[in-house]
Amino acid sequence: MALINTIREKSGVAVGAVAIGMLLFIVGGDLIGGRNRLFGRDGNVVGSVNGEKIELPEFTAALEQAKQNFASQQGRQPDEQATGYLRDQVWNQLLYKRAFQPELDK
């Protein structure tokens, strides 16, 4: 009986501790994680060069095009290693397009 009374008396503290823990988990994950939704970071941007954003749909479209080119040239779909290489190649092309090409055009 004494144990039940102790649990009843301390339940408010336990619920409060759980609520604070959940709040810290949500806010902390948002602060530490890459996709910050609470404080206005755009989760659709994968990078920025010279103040110009590289958005996820553009990167994904370029990667899919590179995968299609690979499949048509090699006669097979790219494996995990080839996909990593294609991902790096597409990223470098997007960087070149935004960073070096404007300077070369001058």
Keywords:
106 residues; single chain; mainly alpha
Could you please describe the fold and organization of this structure?
With about 110 residues, the chain is mainly α. The chain folds into two domains: about 1-40, no CATH class; about 45-105, no CATH class. The chain is about 70% helix and about 10% strand. It is built from three helices and two strands, in the order αββαα. It has helices spanning about 1-30, 55-75, 80-105; strands at about 45-50, 50-55. The protein has a two-stranded antiparallel sheet with strand order 1-2. A hairpin with a 2-residue loop joins strand 1 and strand 2. Helix 2 (about 55-75) crosses helix 3. The longest helix is centred in the N-terminal third of the chain and has 31 residues, at about 1-30. The protein is elongated, with a radius of gyration of 25 Å. It starts with a helix and ends with a helix.
